[in-house]
From TrEMBL:
Family under the similarity heading: Belongs to the ribulokinase family.
CC annotations in GO: cytoplasm
Protein's recorded name: Ribulokinase
GO molecular function term, any single one: D-ribulokinase activity
Keyword Nucleotide-binding appears in the UniProt entry: yes
Gene coding for it: araB
Enzyme Commission no: 2.7.1.16
Keywords, in A-Z order: Arabinose catabolism, ATP-binding, Carbohydrate metabolism, Kinase, Nucleotide-binding, Transferase
Gene Ontology biological process terms from the UniProt entry: L-arabinose catabolic process to D-xylulose 5-phosphate
Lineage: Bacteria, Bacillati, Bacillota, Bacilli, Bacillales
EC main group: transferase
Catalyzed reaction equations: D-ribulose + ATP = D-ribulose 5-phosphate + ADP + H(+); L-ribulose + ATP = L-ribulose 5-phosphate + ADP + H(+)
Pathway listed: Carbohydrate degradation; L-arabinose degradation via L-ribulose; D-xylulose 5-phosphate from L-arabinose (bacterial route): step 2/3
PANTHER family: FGGY CARBOHYDRATE KINASE DOMAIN-CONTAINING PROTEIN (PTHR43435:SF4), RIBULOKINASE (PTHR43435)
Domain Carbohydrate kinase FGGY N-terminal: 5-277
Length: 557
Protein backbone atom coordinates (compact mmCIF):
# COMPACT_ATOMS: atom_id res chain seq x y z
CA UNK A 1 0.00 0.00 0.00
CA UNK A 2 1.33 3.50 -0.83
CA UNK A 3 1.87 5.95 2.03
CA UNK A 4 -1.42 7.25 3.43
CA UNK A 5 -2.34 10.68 4.75
CA UNK A 6 -5.17 12.46 6.52
CA UNK A 7 -6.16 16.11 6.76
CA UNK A 8 -7.13 17.82 10.00
CA UNK A 9 -8.84 21.21 10.00
CA UNK A 10 -8.67 23.26 13.19
CA UNK A 11 -11.24 26.04 13.49
CA UNK A 12 -9.83 28.53 16.04
CA UNK A 13 -11.20 31.86 17.22
CA UNK A 14 -9.56 34.04 14.58
CA UNK A 15 -8.59 31.62 11.83
CA UNK A 16 -8.94 28.09 10.51
CA UNK A 17 -5.93 25.89 9.63
CA UNK A 18 -5.58 22.71 7.64
CA UNK A 19 -2.70 20.30 8.10
CA UNK A 20 -1.87 17.30 5.96
CA UNK A 21 -0.35 14.56 8.08
CA UNK A 22 1.62 11.40 7.30
CA UNK A 23 -0.26 8.58 9.03
CA UNK A 24 2.84 6.45 9.57
CA UNK A 25 4.57 8.95 11.90
CA UNK A 26 2.37 12.02 12.44
CA UNK A 27 4.67 14.33 10.48
CA UNK A 28 2.98 17.49 9.31
CA UNK A 29 3.74 17.56 5.61
CA UNK A 30 1.98 20.84 4.87
CA UNK A 31 -0.15 23.37 6.68
CA UNK A 32 -2.10 26.45 5.68
CA UNK A 33 -3.93 29.11 7.67
CA UNK A 34 -7.01 31.03 6.49
CA UNK A 35 -7.77 34.05 8.67
CA UNK A 36 -11.55 34.40 8.91
CA UNK A 37 -12.50 37.21 6.50
CA UNK A 38 -15.04 38.57 9.02
CA UNK A 39 -12.99 37.73 12.14
CA UNK A 40 -14.81 37.98 15.45
CA UNK A 41 -17.90 40.15 14.99
CA UNK A 42 -18.28 41.93 18.33
CA UNK A 43 -19.22 45.51 17.52
CA UNK A 44 -21.55 45.61 14.51
CA UNK A 45 -23.11 43.28 11.95
CA UNK A 46 -21.50 43.06 8.51
CA UNK A 47 -23.27 45.05 5.74
CA UNK A 48 -26.08 46.55 7.85
CA UNK A 49 -23.69 47.90 10.49
CA UNK A 50 -26.29 47.12 13.19
CA UNK A 51 -24.66 47.65 16.59
CA UNK A 52 -24.22 44.69 18.93
CA UNK A 53 -24.77 44.78 22.69
CA UNK A 54 -22.20 44.27 25.47
CA UNK A 55 -20.54 40.86 25.62
CA UNK A 56 -21.70 39.81 22.14
CA UNK A 57 -19.37 37.78 19.91
CA UNK A 58 -20.57 36.47 16.55
CA UNK A 59 -19.08 34.83 13.46
CA UNK A 60 -19.95 34.39 9.78
CA UNK A 61 -20.59 30.75 8.69
CA UNK A 62 -19.17 31.41 5.24
CA UNK A 63 -15.76 31.99 6.88
CA UNK A 64 -15.77 28.33 7.86
CA UNK A 65 -16.43 27.28 4.26
CA UNK A 66 -13.70 29.67 3.13
CA UNK A 67 -11.22 27.62 5.20
CA UNK A 68 -12.26 24.51 3.25
CA UNK A 69 -12.09 26.39 -0.05
CA UNK A 70 -8.61 27.78 0.59
CA UNK A 71 -6.67 25.76 3.14
CA UNK A 72 -7.54 22.22 2.02
CA UNK A 73 -6.49 22.71 -1.65
CA UNK A 74 -3.45 24.64 -0.39
CA UNK A 75 -2.12 21.75 1.74
CA UNK A 76 -2.79 19.27 -1.04
CA UNK A 77 -0.86 21.43 -3.52
CA UNK A 78 2.01 22.22 -1.13
CA UNK A 79 2.49 18.58 -0.15
CA UNK A 80 2.33 17.13 -3.66
CA UNK A 81 0.37 14.22 -2.15
CA UNK A 82 -2.21 12.62 -4.49
CA UNK A 83 -5.79 13.19 -3.35
CA UNK A 84 -6.37 9.39 -3.56
CA UNK A 85 -3.83 8.91 -0.75
CA UNK A 86 -5.69 11.23 1.63
CA UNK A 87 -7.97 8.65 3.21
CA UNK A 88 -9.69 10.68 5.89
CA UNK A 89 -10.50 14.15 7.14
CA UNK A 90 -11.41 15.34 10.63
CA UNK A 91 -12.17 18.76 12.04
CA UNK A 92 -12.07 20.40 15.44
CA UNK A 93 -13.73 23.63 16.46
CA UNK A 94 -14.12 26.16 19.22
CA UNK A 95 -17.20 25.33 21.27
CA UNK A 96 -19.93 26.04 22.09
CA UNK A 97 -19.96 27.96 18.83
CA UNK A 98 -23.60 27.80 17.90
CA UNK A 99 -25.23 28.05 14.52
CA UNK A 100 -28.94 28.17 13.61
CA UNK A 101 -30.24 26.54 10.45
CA UNK A 102 -33.58 26.31 8.71
CA UNK A 103 -35.10 23.03 7.46
CA UNK A 104 -32.79 23.01 4.42
CA UNK A 105 -29.68 23.27 6.62
CA UNK A 106 -29.09 26.90 5.58
CA UNK A 107 -27.75 29.21 8.31
CA UNK A 108 -30.40 31.81 9.11
CA UNK A 109 -27.97 34.69 8.61
CA UNK A 110 -27.47 33.65 4.96
CA UNK A 111 -31.11 34.55 4.31
CA UNK A 112 -32.27 38.10 3.52
CA UNK A 113 -35.04 37.76 6.05
CA UNK A 114 -32.69 37.25 9.01
CA UNK A 115 -29.44 38.89 7.87
CA UNK A 116 -30.07 42.06 9.86
CA UNK A 117 -31.04 40.28 13.07
CA UNK A 118 -28.00 39.68 15.31
CA UNK A 119 -29.67 36.56 16.70
CA UNK A 120 -29.62 34.94 13.26
CA UNK A 121 -25.79 34.79 13.30
CA UNK A 122 -23.30 32.29 14.73
CA UNK A 123 -22.83 32.85 18.45
CA UNK A 124 -19.12 32.32 19.08
CA UNK A 125 -17.95 30.45 22.20
CA UNK A 126 -17.03 33.75 23.86
CA UNK A 127 -20.46 35.34 23.36
CA UNK A 128 -21.22 36.13 27.01
CA UNK A 129 -24.53 37.96 26.64
CA UNK A 130 -26.61 35.00 27.86
CA UNK A 131 -25.39 35.39 31.46
CA UNK A 132 -28.86 36.21 32.82
CA UNK A 133 -30.19 33.01 31.28
CA UNK A 134 -27.24 31.01 32.64
CA UNK A 135 -27.83 32.43 36.13
CA UNK A 136 -31.53 31.51 36.01
CA UNK A 137 -30.76 28.07 34.64
CA UNK A 138 -28.29 27.42 37.47
CA UNK A 139 -30.69 28.61 40.15
CA UNK A 140 -33.54 26.44 38.81
CA UNK A 141 -31.28 23.39 38.36
CA UNK A 142 -29.96 23.79 41.94
CA UNK A 143 -33.47 24.25 43.35
CA UNK A 144 -34.68 21.10 41.60
CA UNK A 145 -31.59 19.15 42.71
CA UNK A 146 -30.78 18.27 39.09
CA UNK A 147 -28.22 15.46 39.04
CA UNK A 148 -26.37 16.93 36.11
CA UNK A 149 -25.22 20.11 37.88
CA UNK A 150 -22.27 18.60 39.83
CA UNK A 151 -20.95 17.10 36.57
CA UNK A 152 -20.46 20.70 35.37
CA UNK A 153 -18.62 21.94 38.45
CA UNK A 154 -21.88 23.24 39.97
CA UNK A 155 -22.63 25.79 37.22
CA UNK A 156 -23.62 25.79 33.57
CA UNK A 157 -21.76 28.51 31.67
CA UNK A 158 -23.32 31.30 29.63
CA UNK A 159 -20.91 30.21 26.87
CA UNK A 160 -22.92 27.03 26.34
CA UNK A 161 -25.79 25.90 24.19
CA UNK A 162 -28.82 26.01 26.47
CA UNK A 163 -28.13 29.53 27.80
CA UNK A 164 -27.55 30.77 24.25
CA UNK A 165 -30.73 29.12 22.94
CA UNK A 166 -32.74 30.60 25.78
CA UNK A 167 -31.33 34.07 25.11
CA UNK A 168 -32.61 33.80 21.52
CA UNK A 169 -36.02 32.68 22.71
CA UNK A 170 -36.22 35.60 25.15
CA UNK A 171 -34.89 38.34 22.90
CA UNK A 172 -35.92 37.18 19.41
CA UNK A 173 -38.73 34.59 19.63
CA UNK A 174 -39.27 34.97 15.88
CA UNK A 175 -35.70 33.75 15.25
CA UNK A 176 -36.24 30.86 17.66
CA UNK A 177 -39.41 29.96 15.76
CA UNK A 178 -37.69 30.09 12.37
CA UNK A 179 -34.85 27.82 13.56
CA UNK A 180 -35.17 24.18 12.58
CA UNK A 181 -31.98 23.07 14.39
CA UNK A 182 -29.57 24.63 16.83
CA UNK A 183 -26.22 23.09 15.92
CA UNK A 184 -22.63 23.28 17.02
CA UNK A 185 -20.64 24.85 14.17
CA UNK A 186 -18.45 21.73 14.15
CA UNK A 187 -21.49 19.54 13.33
CA UNK A 188 -22.73 21.98 10.70
CA UNK A 189 -19.40 21.98 8.85
CA UNK A 190 -19.37 18.18 8.91
CA UNK A 191 -22.91 18.20 7.47
CA UNK A 192 -21.65 20.42 4.66
CA UNK A 193 -18.87 17.92 3.91
CA UNK A 194 -21.00 14.78 4.03
CA UNK A 195 -24.48 16.00 3.09
CA UNK A 196 -26.01 14.57 6.30
CA UNK A 197 -26.40 16.02 9.79
CA UNK A 198 -25.10 14.16 12.85
CA UNK A 199 -24.14 15.52 16.24
CA UNK A 200 -20.96 14.49 18.06
CA UNK A 201 -20.98 13.19 21.63
CA UNK A 202 -18.20 15.55 22.74
CA UNK A 203 -19.95 18.89 22.20
CA UNK A 204 -23.31 17.33 23.16
CA UNK A 205 -21.76 16.18 26.45
CA UNK A 206 -19.72 19.23 27.40
CA UNK A 207 -21.83 22.02 25.96
CA UNK A 208 -25.45 20.77 25.72
CA UNK A 209 -25.79 18.86 29.03
CA UNK A 210 -26.19 15.50 27.24
CA UNK A 211 -25.22 12.33 29.13
CA UNK A 212 -24.27 8.99 27.57
CA UNK A 213 -26.66 7.02 29.82
CA UNK A 214 -29.26 9.63 30.72
CA UNK A 215 -29.51 11.73 27.57
CA UNK A 216 -30.52 15.40 27.90
CA UNK A 217 -32.10 16.80 31.10
CA UNK A 218 -35.81 16.01 31.43
CA UNK A 219 -38.67 17.81 29.68
CA UNK A 220 -39.79 18.88 33.16
CA UNK A 221 -36.51 20.66 33.71
CA UNK A 222 -36.81 22.52 30.41
CA UNK A 223 -40.46 23.32 31.19
CA UNK A 224 -39.36 24.74 34.55
CA UNK A 225 -36.93 27.01 32.70
CA UNK A 226 -39.60 28.18 30.27
CA UNK A 227 -42.70 26.28 29.08
CA UNK A 228 -41.73 27.18 25.49
CA UNK A 229 -38.55 25.09 25.92
CA UNK A 230 -40.33 21.91 27.02
CA UNK A 231 -39.80 20.13 23.67
CA UNK A 232 -36.42 21.65 22.84
CA UNK A 233 -34.37 18.45 22.93
CA UNK A 234 -36.77 16.44 20.76
CA UNK A 235 -37.26 19.27 18.25
CA UNK A 236 -34.55 21.85 17.71
CA UNK A 237 -31.79 19.83 19.42
CA UNK A 238 -32.83 16.55 17.77
CA UNK A 239 -30.35 14.45 15.80
CA UNK A 240 -28.29 11.29 16.15
CA UNK A 241 -25.40 11.71 18.58
CA UNK A 242 -22.37 9.73 17.45
CA UNK A 243 -19.32 9.03 19.63
CA UNK A 244 -15.90 10.53 18.93
CA UNK A 245 -13.84 8.22 16.76
CA UNK A 246 -16.72 7.30 14.47
CA UNK A 247 -17.29 8.15 10.86
CA UNK A 248 -19.90 10.83 10.14
CA UNK A 249 -20.08 9.97 6.46
CA UNK A 250 -18.18 10.43 3.22
CA UNK A 251 -17.18 13.50 1.24
CA UNK A 252 -19.84 14.52 -1.29
CA UNK A 253 -18.99 15.02 -4.98
CA UNK A 254 -19.70 18.75 -4.66
CA UNK A 255 -17.31 19.14 -1.71
CA UNK A 256 -14.73 16.99 -3.52
CA UNK A 257 -14.72 19.57 -6.34
CA UNK A 258 -14.43 22.40 -3.83
CA UNK A 259 -11.60 20.88 -1.77
CA UNK A 260 -9.69 18.86 -4.39
CA UNK A 261 -10.15 15.66 -2.35
CA UNK A 262 -11.72 12.48 -3.68
CA UNK A 263 -15.48 11.95 -3.29
CA UNK A 264 -16.08 9.20 -0.73
CA UNK A 265 -13.16 10.21 1.54
CA UNK A 266 -14.00 9.24 5.14
CA UNK A 267 -15.12 12.16 7.31
CA UNK A 268 -14.94 11.89 11.12
CA UNK A 269 -17.65 13.26 13.40
CA UNK A 270 -16.93 16.79 14.60
CA UNK A 271 -14.71 17.43 17.62
CA UNK A 272 -13.64 20.31 19.88
CA UNK A 273 -10.24 21.99 19.47
CA UNK A 274 -8.89 21.31 22.95
CA UNK A 275 -10.26 17.76 23.03
CA UNK A 276 -8.70 16.84 19.68
CA UNK A 277 -5.32 18.06 20.95
CA UNK A 278 -5.16 15.48 23.76
CA UNK A 279 -4.32 12.34 21.70
CA UNK A 280 -2.16 14.52 19.45
CA UNK A 281 0.29 15.00 22.34
CA UNK A 282 0.09 11.27 23.06
CA UNK A 283 -2.13 11.51 26.13
CA UNK A 284 -4.50 8.54 26.19
CA UNK A 285 -4.58 7.73 29.92
CA UNK A 286 -4.95 9.22 33.41
CA UNK A 287 -2.91 11.77 35.34
CA UNK A 288 -1.67 13.86 32.40
CA UNK A 289 -3.09 17.36 32.11
CA UNK A 290 -3.04 18.90 28.63
CA UNK A 291 -3.20 22.68 28.25
CA UNK A 292 -4.41 23.88 24.85
CA UNK A 293 -2.96 27.39 24.99
CA UNK A 294 -4.12 30.09 22.60
CA UNK A 295 -6.74 32.84 22.77
CA UNK A 296 -7.97 30.98 25.84
CA UNK A 297 -6.66 27.92 27.70
CA UNK A 298 -8.54 24.66 27.99
CA UNK A 299 -7.23 22.21 30.60
CA UNK A 300 -7.96 18.60 29.71
CA UNK A 301 -7.50 15.55 31.93
CA UNK A 302 -8.57 11.89 31.91
CA UNK A 303 -9.75 9.89 34.91
CA UNK A 304 -11.35 6.54 35.67
CA UNK A 305 -13.93 7.83 38.15
CA UNK A 306 -16.53 10.58 37.94
CA UNK A 307 -15.50 13.08 40.63
CA UNK A 308 -16.94 16.51 41.49
CA UNK A 309 -14.46 19.35 41.13
CA UNK A 310 -15.41 22.96 41.87
CA UNK A 311 -15.83 25.08 38.76
CA UNK A 312 -14.68 22.55 36.20
CA UNK A 313 -16.37 22.95 32.82
CA UNK A 314 -17.49 19.35 32.84
CA UNK A 315 -16.79 15.65 33.12
CA UNK A 316 -18.05 13.53 30.22
CA UNK A 317 -17.73 9.78 29.77
CA UNK A 318 -15.73 9.07 26.59
CA UNK A 319 -15.68 12.85 26.09
CA UNK A 320 -12.02 12.90 25.04
CA UNK A 321 -10.81 9.28 24.81
CA UNK A 322 -13.07 6.22 24.85
CA UNK A 323 -13.05 4.35 28.15
CA UNK A 324 -12.17 7.38 30.29
CA UNK A 325 -13.97 10.18 32.03
CA UNK A 326 -12.82 13.34 30.23
CA UNK A 327 -12.42 16.40 32.48
CA UNK A 328 -12.31 19.94 31.12
CA UNK A 329 -11.63 23.28 32.83
CA UNK A 330 -10.43 26.54 31.37
CA UNK A 331 -9.57 30.23 31.33
CA UNK A 332 -11.71 32.35 29.00
CA UNK A 333 -8.91 34.71 28.09
CA UNK A 334 -5.14 34.17 27.98
CA UNK A 335 -3.61 35.15 24.60
CA UNK A 336 -6.59 37.51 24.30
CA UNK A 337 -5.38 39.44 27.38
CA UNK A 338 -1.88 39.79 25.92
CA UNK A 339 -3.44 40.93 22.64
CA UNK A 340 -5.60 43.49 24.47
CA UNK A 341 -2.47 44.88 26.10
CA UNK A 342 -0.56 45.09 22.82
CA UNK A 343 -3.51 46.62 20.94
CA UNK A 344 -5.01 48.91 23.55
CA UNK A 345 -2.52 49.72 26.28
CA UNK A 346 1.00 49.96 24.88
CA UNK A 347 2.51 53.45 24.51
CA UNK A 348 3.52 54.64 21.03
CA UNK A 349 7.24 54.51 21.90
CA UNK A 350 7.03 50.73 22.36
CA UNK A 351 5.39 50.20 18.98
CA UNK A 352 7.95 52.47 17.31
CA UNK A 353 10.89 50.72 19.00
CA UNK A 354 9.58 47.29 18.06
CA UNK A 355 9.09 48.40 14.47
CA UNK A 356 12.59 49.87 14.34
CA UNK A 357 14.04 46.60 15.61
CA UNK A 358 11.92 44.64 13.14
CA UNK A 359 10.21 42.55 15.84
CA UNK A 360 6.58 42.22 16.91
CA UNK A 361 5.34 44.08 19.99
CA UNK A 362 4.78 40.79 21.86
CA UNK A 363 8.41 39.85 21.26
CA UNK A 364 9.73 43.30 22.19
CA UNK A 365 7.85 43.25 25.48
CA UNK A 366 8.75 39.62 26.21
CA UNK A 367 12.49 40.21 25.71
CA UNK A 368 12.41 43.03 28.25
CA UNK A 369 9.99 41.28 30.65
CA UNK A 370 12.38 38.31 30.73
CA UNK A 371 15.03 40.50 32.36
CA UNK A 372 12.93 40.85 35.53
CA UNK A 373 13.07 38.37 38.39
CA UNK A 374 9.80 37.04 39.83
CA UNK A 375 8.45 39.64 42.25
CA UNK A 376 10.64 42.44 40.87
CA UNK A 377 7.75 44.27 39.17
CA UNK A 378 5.93 44.76 42.47
CA UNK A 379 2.69 43.92 40.64
CA UNK A 380 0.09 41.21 40.80
CA UNK A 381 -3.04 40.84 38.61
CA UNK A 382 -6.27 38.88 38.34
CA UNK A 383 -6.67 37.34 34.87
CA UNK A 384 -10.38 38.02 34.40
CA UNK A 385 -10.41 40.28 31.32
CA UNK A 386 -13.03 37.94 29.80
CA UNK A 387 -14.60 36.72 33.04
CA UNK A 388 -13.60 33.62 34.97
CA UNK A 389 -14.40 30.24 33.45
CA UNK A 390 -12.83 28.03 36.15
CA UNK A 391 -13.08 27.73 39.09
CA UNK A 392 -15.53 30.59 39.72
CA UNK A 393 -17.61 30.24 36.52
CA UNK A 394 -18.58 33.90 36.39
CA UNK A 395 -18.40 35.93 33.20
CA UNK A 396 -19.22 39.13 35.10
CA UNK A 397 -15.82 39.21 36.79
CA UNK A 398 -13.26 41.61 35.32
CA UNK A 399 -9.53 42.42 35.47
CA UNK A 400 -7.46 43.87 38.31
CA UNK A 401 -3.81 44.97 38.60
CA UNK A 402 -2.41 45.89 42.01
CA UNK A 403 0.86 47.73 42.64
CA UNK A 404 1.19 50.35 39.87
CA UNK A 405 3.54 53.28 40.52
CA UNK A 406 4.78 56.17 38.41
CA UNK A 407 7.80 54.02 37.57
CA UNK A 408 5.85 51.00 36.23
CA UNK A 409 6.99 50.06 32.72
CA UNK A 410 4.93 48.43 29.92
CA UNK A 411 7.12 45.32 29.99
CA UNK A 412 6.45 44.94 33.73
CA UNK A 413 2.73 45.15 33.05
CA UNK A 414 3.08 42.58 30.27
CA UNK A 415 5.02 40.22 32.55
CA UNK A 416 2.36 40.67 35.24
CA UNK A 417 -0.35 39.62 32.78
CA UNK A 418 1.66 36.52 31.78
CA UNK A 419 2.00 35.66 35.48
CA UNK A 420 -1.69 36.29 36.21
CA UNK A 421 -2.71 33.71 33.61
CA UNK A 422 -0.23 31.23 35.13
CA UNK A 423 -1.83 31.77 38.54
CA UNK A 424 -5.22 31.07 36.96
CA UNK A 425 -3.88 27.78 35.61
CA UNK A 426 -2.35 26.90 39.01
CA UNK A 427 -5.78 27.38 40.62
CA UNK A 428 -7.29 24.92 38.13
CA UNK A 429 -4.52 22.31 38.49
CA UNK A 430 -4.80 22.46 42.29
CA UNK A 431 -8.60 22.12 42.09
CA UNK A 432 -8.26 18.87 40.14
CA UNK A 433 -5.25 17.50 42.01
CA UNK A 434 -6.66 18.16 45.48
CA UNK A 435 -10.12 16.81 44.67
CA UNK A 436 -9.48 13.31 43.44
CA UNK A 437 -8.32 13.83 39.84
CA UNK A 438 -4.55 13.66 40.27
CA UNK A 439 -2.24 15.55 37.93
CA UNK A 440 1.15 13.85 37.56
CA UNK A 441 2.34 15.33 34.27
CA UNK A 442 1.61 18.55 32.38
CA UNK A 443 1.63 18.96 28.59
CA UNK A 444 1.22 22.14 26.56
CA UNK A 445 0.14 22.67 22.98
CA UNK A 446 -1.50 25.36 20.85
CA UNK A 447 -0.06 28.63 19.57
CA UNK A 448 1.32 30.11 22.81
CA UNK A 449 4.04 27.54 23.68
CA UNK A 450 5.56 28.14 20.24
CA UNK A 451 5.34 31.90 20.54
CA UNK A 452 6.54 32.63 24.04
CA UNK A 453 9.20 30.67 25.98
CA UNK A 454 9.10 33.14 28.90
CA UNK A 455 5.40 32.42 29.36
CA UNK A 456 6.10 28.69 29.48
CA UNK A 457 8.92 29.10 32.03
CA UNK A 458 6.59 31.20 34.20
CA UNK A 459 3.95 28.43 34.00
CA UNK A 460 6.55 25.82 35.06
CA UNK A 461 7.68 28.03 37.97
CA UNK A 462 4.19 28.99 39.14
CA UNK A 463 2.85 25.42 39.01
CA UNK A 464 6.17 23.91 40.17
CA UNK A 465 5.72 21.26 37.48
CA UNK A 466 7.78 20.25 34.47
CA UNK A 467 5.93 21.07 31.23
CA UNK A 468 6.26 18.92 28.11
CA UNK A 469 5.47 20.68 24.84
CA UNK A 470 3.88 19.22 21.72
CA UNK A 471 6.27 18.80 18.81
CA UNK A 472 3.68 20.06 16.41
CA UNK A 473 2.80 23.40 14.88
CA UNK A 474 -0.90 22.64 14.73
CA UNK A 475 -1.65 20.15 17.51
CA UNK A 476 -5.48 20.23 17.46
CA UNK A 477 -5.39 19.87 13.66
CA UNK A 478 -3.10 16.84 13.97
CA UNK A 479 -5.56 15.38 16.49
CA UNK A 480 -8.41 16.05 14.05
CA UNK A 481 -6.40 14.28 11.32
CA UNK A 482 -5.98 11.30 13.69
CA UNK A 483 -9.77 11.11 14.04
CA UNK A 484 -9.99 11.32 10.23
CA UNK A 485 -7.62 8.33 10.02
CA UNK A 486 -9.78 6.42 12.50
CA UNK A 487 -12.90 7.23 10.46
CA UNK A 488 -11.14 5.65 7.46
CA UNK A 489 -10.06 2.57 9.49
CA UNK A 490 -6.99 0.32 9.45
CA UNK A 491 -8.12 -1.62 6.38
CA UNK A 492 -7.79 1.58 4.31
CA UNK A 493 -4.39 2.48 5.80
CA UNK A 494 -5.72 4.42 8.79
CA UNK A 495 -6.29 3.21 12.36
CA UNK A 496 -9.00 1.34 14.20
CA UNK A 497 -8.82 3.48 17.35
CA UNK A 498 -7.50 6.86 18.33
CA UNK A 499 -5.25 5.16 20.90
CA UNK A 500 -3.55 3.26 18.04
CA UNK A 501 -3.31 6.48 16.03
CA UNK A 502 -1.77 8.33 19.00
CA UNK A 503 0.85 5.59 19.52
CA UNK A 504 2.08 6.01 15.96
CA UNK A 505 1.53 9.70 15.35
CA UNK A 506 1.77 11.78 18.57
CA UNK A 507 4.99 13.67 19.22
CA UNK A 508 6.34 15.84 22.06
CA UNK A 509 9.60 17.80 22.04
CA UNK A 510 12.56 16.43 23.97
CA UNK A 511 13.25 19.74 25.62
CA UNK A 512 10.86 20.58 28.46
CA UNK A 513 10.30 23.59 30.74
CA UNK A 514 11.50 22.75 34.26
CA UNK A 515 10.70 24.73 37.41
CA UNK A 516 13.58 26.84 38.75
CA UNK A 517 13.56 26.45 42.58
CA UNK A 518 14.31 30.10 43.47
CA UNK A 519 11.53 31.28 41.12
CA UNK A 520 9.13 28.70 42.56
CA UNK A 521 9.73 30.05 46.07
CA UNK A 522 8.89 33.66 45.11
CA UNK A 523 5.89 32.63 43.03
CA UNK A 524 4.55 30.68 46.01
CA UNK A 525 4.34 34.03 47.86
CA UNK A 526 2.90 35.91 44.88
CA UNK A 527 0.34 33.15 44.33
CA UNK A 528 -0.83 33.58 47.94
CA UNK A 529 -1.48 37.26 47.12
CA UNK A 530 -3.32 36.23 43.94
CA UNK A 531 -5.52 33.82 45.92
CA UNK A 532 -6.39 36.51 48.46
CA UNK A 533 -7.49 38.85 45.66
CA UNK A 534 -9.19 35.95 43.83
CA UNK A 535 -11.37 35.07 46.79
CA UNK A 536 -12.01 38.68 47.81
CA UNK A 537 -13.23 39.84 44.39
CA UNK A 538 -14.52 36.48 43.14
CA UNK A 539 -16.43 34.97 46.05
CA UNK A 540 -18.72 37.81 47.06
CA UNK A 541 -16.71 39.73 49.71
CA UNK A 542 -16.69 42.71 47.35
CA UNK A 543 -18.88 42.63 44.25
CA UNK A 544 -17.45 45.89 42.93
CA UNK A 545 -16.83 44.35 39.48
CA UNK A 546 -20.49 43.49 39.10
CA UNK A 547 -21.63 46.90 40.34
CA UNK A 548 -19.32 48.62 37.87
CA UNK A 549 -20.61 46.46 35.04
CA UNK A 550 -24.21 47.27 35.96
CA UNK A 551 -23.38 51.00 36.12
CA UNK A 552 -21.71 50.79 32.73
CA UNK A 553 -24.74 49.14 31.19
CA UNK A 554 -27.05 51.72 32.75
CA UNK A 555 -24.88 54.60 31.58
CA UNK A 556 -24.61 53.37 28.02
CA UNK A 557 -28.39 52.97 27.51
N1 LIG B 1 4.63 36.36 21.32
C1 LIG B 1 3.45 36.16 21.89
N2 LIG B 1 3.37 35.99 23.22
C2 LIG B 1 2.18 35.77 23.84
N3 LIG B 1 1.01 35.71 23.18
C3 LIG B 1 1.03 35.88 21.85
C4 LIG B 1 2.24 36.12 21.14
N4 LIG B 1 1.93 36.25 19.83
C5 LIG B 1 0.58 36.10 19.74
N5 LIG B 1 0.03 35.87 20.95
C6 LIG B 1 -1.37 35.57 21.28
O1 LIG B 1 -1.71 34.29 20.75
C7 LIG B 1 -3.14 34.20 20.61
C8 LIG B 1 -3.50 33.31 19.41
O2 LIG B 1 -3.18 31.99 19.73
P1 LIG B 1 -3.36 30.79 18.69
O3 LIG B 1 -3.10 29.53 19.42
O4 LIG B 1 -2.50 31.08 17.52
O5 LIG B 1 -4.87 30.94 18.19
P2 LIG B 1 -6.31 30.30 18.60
O6 LIG B 1 -6.58 30.57 20.03
O7 LIG B 1 -7.24 31.05 17.69
O8 LIG B 1 -6.26 28.84 18.32
C9 LIG B 1 -3.62 35.63 20.44
O9 LIG B 1 -4.53 35.89 21.49
C10 LIG B 1 -2.35 36.51 20.61
O10 LIG B 1 -2.54 37.59 21.46
O1 LIG C 1 -14.09 26.20 25.11
C1 LIG C 1 -13.42 25.64 24.29
C2 LIG C 1 -13.40 24.19 24.22
O2 LIG C 1 -14.28 23.61 25.11
C3 LIG C 1 -12.57 26.36 23.27
O3 LIG C 1 -13.10 26.07 22.02
C4 LIG C 1 -12.51 27.86 23.48
O4 LIG C 1 -11.92 28.08 24.72
C5 LIG C 1 -11.70 28.56 22.36
O5 LIG C 1 -10.42 28.02 22.17
P1 LIG C 1 -9.18 28.81 21.46
O6 LIG C 1 -8.57 29.65 22.53
O7 LIG C 1 -9.69 29.60 20.32
O8 LIG C 1 -8.23 27.70 21.05
Amino acid sequence: MSAKYAIGVDYGTQSGRAVLVDLSNGHEIADHVTPYPHGVIDEQLPVSGIKLGHDWALQHPDDYLEVLRRSVPAVLAASGVAAEDVIGLGIDFTACTMLLVDASGTPLCFKDEWRDNPHGWVKLWKHHAAQDEADRLNAIAAERGEKFLPRYGGKISSEWMIAKVWQILNEAPEVYEATDLFTEATDWVISQLTGAFVRNSCTAGYKSIWHKQEGYPSRDFFKALDPRLEDLTSTKLRGDIKPLGTKAGELTAEMATLTGLVAGTAIAVGNVDAHAAVPAVGVVDEGKLVMAMGTSICHMLLGKEEVEVEGMCGVVEDGIIEGYMGYEAGQSAVGDIFEWFVEEAVPAYVKEAAEKEGVGVHQWLTERAAQYKPGETGLVALDWWNGNRSVLVDTNLTGVVVGYTLLTKPEEMYRTLLEATAFGTRTIIDAFHNNGVPVHEVYACGGLPQKNALLMQIYADVTNREIKVADSKQTPAVGAAMFGAVAAGAAKGGYDSVVDAAKAMARVREETFKPIPENVAVYERLYAEYRTLHDYFGRGANDVMKRLKALKEEASK
